[in-house]
Amino acid sequence: MAVVDIKTKKTAWDRLQLVRMIERPTAMDYIDRIFDSFIEFHGDRYFSDDAAVVGGIAMLDGMPVTVIGHQKGRNIKENIKRNFGMPQPDGYRKALRLMKQAEKFNRPVICFVDTKGAHCDEGAEERGQGEAIARNLLEMSKLRTPSISIVIGEGGSGGALALAVTDQVWMLENSIYSILSPEGFAGILWRDGSRAKEAANIMKITAKDLKGFGIIDKIIKEPFGGAHKNVDKVAEEIKKNLISTLDKLNSKPVEELVQSRYEKFRNMGEYSE
Q1: Its pTM surpasses 0.85
Q2: What is Dmax (Cα atoms) for the chain?
């Protein structure tokens, strides 16, 4: 039986369909509204510039920050360019390059997570997709600057986690965050991808589920019908929370910040029903 959110009447599958809508706001939609003077940086200094990951420096209420996000397209042409928001290893290496630069100049890192998962074709494997993701997990865990990740749509598997080992992890109300897609889950568990709806409703992938498990720290409310109904309002809410939270994180000594992040992920999942 599907678990229904009593307040909204939405199942996990309903939310998944909502975040997969072409109208769903992308990372750049939020970046343009939340930050001033955004300057995008390109390339991983190894192989290429992966358009599925955007990143650069910007100002947040007068504070210099580094902003990174998975980026999907608005139509077929854009999605082909962005690889449907599924990064190659080059994208993760670009993200890490920007994170290490942020650490050097004491800039907080803000990530927008929105991907079904990392790209997994032959070329990605040949260039070290697994190593690139693992390297991000390692480096983010000990990054000596404050960091916040916000799941704005789909947060799928290691492809999402590679931008989410941060001091705070937030989710928009209708976003989802999981070890893999419901289609993949159904294919592996039941060898039947057509049971994806059933899988979604038992996987505990919603913001409410994950907040209860202690996996995420905050849920950002969305307008009735989804974030696309009022992007400005959602962006304003994110900005307000970013400013107040970074003010607290910036006040912590670096060693305490890193240790708290370590303990957060070591203790993750220790919750009470």
Answers
A1: yes
A2: 52
Tokens of 89: 């290893």
Q: Which residues of 107-130 are buried (b: 16+ CB within 10 A; e: fewer)?
A: bbbbbbbbbbbbbeeeebeebbbe
Radius of gyration of the chain (CA): 18
How do the pLDDT tens digits run along the chain, 273 residues long? 455 554 557 899 999 999 999 999 999 999 999 999 999 999 989 899 999 999 999 999 999 999 999 999 989 999 899 988 899 999 999 999 999 999 999 999 999 999 988 888 898 899 989 999 999 999 999 999 999 999 999 998 889 999 999 999 999 999 999 988 898 899 999 999 899 999 999 999 999 999 999 999 999 999 999 999 999 999 999 999 999 999 999 999 999 999 999 999 988 756 444
* Burial grade of 269 (CB within 10 A; 0-12, 13-18, 19 or more): exposed
